Amino acid sequence: MVRPLGSSEEHLTTFASFICNLAKVPDEDRPTIFAEAAPIHEILENLSHIPPLPQCNIVSKPQVDMNRMIETPYIRKVIAGDLRTALNEFYASGGAVMKVVQILYQEHNSRYNRLCPLVTQDEDPGHHARYVNHCESIEQLRAWTPRFPPGEEYLTIPNQKLPKGLMAIHIDMHAYEEWASKYNDTMNQLLNGPWVAYQDAKVNFEKALNDAAANGTLPTARAVGRVRTHWQGYLEEMHKWEKEIPRLGLSSFVTTVIQVFVALIERAEDGWVLSARFLASAPRELRVYWWRRLLAGRGVVNVAAMKDILPANCREESFLGG
Q1: What are the residues whose beta carbons fall under 8 Å from the beta carbon of 67, sequence distance 6 or more?
Q2: What are the pLDDT digits (tens) for 129-142?
Q3: Which of 22, 133, 175, 230 could bridge to 168 as Cys pair (CB 3.0-4.6 Å)?
Q4: Residue bearing the bigger pLDDT, 166 or 288
Q5: What is the tens place of the pLDDT at every residue in 158-194?
């Protein structure tokens, strides 16, 4: 729940200023009706299905017990021949999957940083400083927490919002999409390469193990059982990585930016003004999307009524369509 920031009049003024600063959209893109300029905290409730950027990583790095994935001296001793070949291929393919998933994990959790172009100090000191400031702003937004638990707002004093002077968000669609394209290429290479090889290696080793048990390559039932136990342990630890793969898909650029803006509104001083300022440099399609989302679903008013609500310096005929 987002707390009201002041009177309804203050909300209306802030909201009106915000929508006027968003974008001057062409006639064909303007909705024919306008939604009621509701207080900010009510508008935010309409956006509840798009949460602010998470305060922790969405995908948690699995806690893998490497001891279950390392061969014991006994396993090394009893496995030989085709069974050894199949097991080595299984190890190699599993390791390849883990390596790529760890890369994706690290990249996925940097996605909000990648809204700003990554520039090194040597390439351009000024743009590097901009990237550093952007990352620091994202980190502060993620670290902010309300002082009270949901539903108990009346029991304690609300947490102070982040000073607006500390916020230095920079939005660059092309930088994000260039990074996202490389990320998705890596994901596709994983799913079409190491992942397929790992699935095949699992089937091949299971067949080789069953053959070894049947033809006496493994000397005793005890040996078969211990090899199978080792293999099952490896599979269980690998599954901790496997189950994270579906969660490593990227959100769209628009959704990622909206998560940042909702966090700004919730956690920073003058968050609406800040989000409008940062959105000014964003692509037109994002501005239109965000503008429409804010105006949707809140009872309609006609153009004349909207003009009465807006500050005098925002009553532009070209914007309002009247």
Answers
A1: none
A2: 999 999 999 999 98
A3: 133
A4: 166
A5: 568 889 888 998 888 889 999 999 999 999 999 999 9
Tell whether the model's pLDDT for residue 18 goes beyond 70. Answer: no
Distance of CA 285 to the CA centre of its chain: 20
The dihedral region occupied by 30, where left means phi > 0, alpha psi between -120 and 50, and beta the remainder, is: beta
For residue 28, the 8-state DSSP code is G
**107 to 102, 139, 169, 249, 252: CA distances (angstroms):** 9, 15, 19, 11, 15
pLDDT score at 149: 56
- Return the pLDDT at 9: 37
Here the tokens at position 272 are 């609406």
Q: Among all chains, which residue has been given the structure tokens 């964003």?
A: 282
Q: Crossing angle, helix 81-108 and helix 194-215, to 10 degrees?
A: 150
Based on the number of CB atoms within 10 Å of its own CB, is 301 exposed (0-12), middle (13-18) or buried (19 or more)? middle
Say if CB 282 and CB 169 are below 8 A apart.
no
Round to whole Å and give the CA distance between 96 and 101: 9
Tokens 């909702």 label which residue? 262
Domain positions in the chain are 19-33+41-55+117-168+251-315, 66-110+176-248
Contact of 117 with 179, CB cutoff 8 Å: no
DSSP state of 77: H
